[in-house]
Amino acid sequence: MTMTYVDPPGGHGRPAVPLSAAEALTRCVSVEPAKFAADHWGRSPLLSRAAELPNPHGFTDLLSPADADELLSRRGLRTPFLRVAKDGQLVPAARYTGGGGAGAEIGDQVLDEKVLALYDDGATLVLQGLHRTWPALVDFTRDLGAALAQPLQVNAYLTPAGSQGFATHYDTHDVFVLQVDGRKHWRIHPPVLVDPLERQPWGGRADEVAATADGRPALDVVLEPGDALYLPRGWLHSAQAQESSSLHLTVGIRALTRYAVVEELLGLAAEDARLRAGLPFGLDLADPDAIEPELTETVEALRDWLLRADPAAVAARLRARVWPAARPAPIRPLAQAEALTRLAPDSRVAVRAGLRWQLTPTGDGTVVLRLFDRTLTLPGTCEAALRALLAGEVTRVGDLPGLDDDADRLTLTRRLLKEAVLVPA
């Protein structure tokens, strides 16, 4: 897949939505993306039946029951890539992990025979972090993340017939539920707390959750293979497998909130001397009357500082917070090293799919290329070639613009291959 990029004024390169990303979203929702964004995103659930989705084989291409068995038995899985739940409680990892035998004595490896015993006894198996461990989901998650412009995570839930892994609860992130195999009965209730933050989990409102769960659900449905369900954060839900075992994928959407902007603003507010000032000597912190004038002064100082807040500084902090949460496409280290040894003017390269970048001239004869995990400083003469490479199309090294000869083009390309900015095409 070739990822296309846009490079708006200021050099802030971000992945555009390629065809594969748009297709990833349409696999999950039965309405047009614009309608989904306007009517459901962050607002209300959306049930999409298999017949309404363009998935002739459902979601088995992403992870089938046989794939799950392979992960549990042949991949040397370790915690926390597996959780086990029974009767609404997590099973201690020691009950299903241990050493892997000669040469693999690490004590937290998943033991298939212990997993079998727990599953046979009605426990739900939760395969976690599949966006990092299972190839089909690595690619799907990257594409869907590009369509939503949000970092994602993927878990799989394997539930025996008639069992329920977790009691009614809410998540602090939006989710897509993709039913892969079997049937599962879902009961959905409105939030007890609208748009909860990660620091506001459902356990702190367990009584409210239980009382609401006793009422009439807003949605009471059985998901069949190939069905999809979108739930905004905060919506209460519980799910029970029916007459046979069930496998579904949960795609968690770690969306940023305005509160995250507030947190970054407060981090920057430490630059203001008035806000760094100490409280008066001997102030009784338990006395509201004594605190009131200090609170007034602090609010005024904060307001004055906020009016001078630099959007570029806030954006830089948000970039450092968000970009590392969504890794670009995997690279093949051995193939990458081989490409370096064979690099020639006729070699063709492409930018690493899903890579977030920001290219900024410094004014001192260099350009700065910011990536999700590091910053590269390069000669300003490389800017035109960098923009050509980062545009997302496959490029012949010898055709790079702005450089005097092939030696310079090879030097730049070699550096970017070593830094995993480019990949051989």
Automatic annotation (TrEMBL):
<keyword id="KW-0408">Iron</keyword>
<protein>
    <submittedName>
        <fullName>Cupin superfamily protein</fullName>
    </submittedName>
</protein>
<dbReference type="GO" id="GO:0032453">
    <property type="term" value="F:histone H3K4 demethylase activity"/>
</dbReference>
<feature type="domain" description="JmjC">
    <location>
        <begin position="123"/>
        <end position="270"/>
    </location>
</feature>
<dbReference type="GO" id="GO:0046872">
    <property type="term" value="F:metal ion binding"/>
</dbReference>
<dbReference type="InterPro" id="IPR039994">
    <property type="entry name" value="NO66-like"/>
</dbReference>
<dbReference type="GO" id="GO:0051864">
    <property type="term" value="F:histone H3K36 demethylase activity"/>
</dbReference>
<dbReference type="Pfam" id="PF08007">
    <property type="entry name" value="JmjC_2"/>
</dbReference>
<dbReference type="InterPro" id="IPR003347">
    <property type="entry name" value="JmjC_dom"/>
</dbReference>
<keyword id="KW-0479">Metal-binding</keyword>
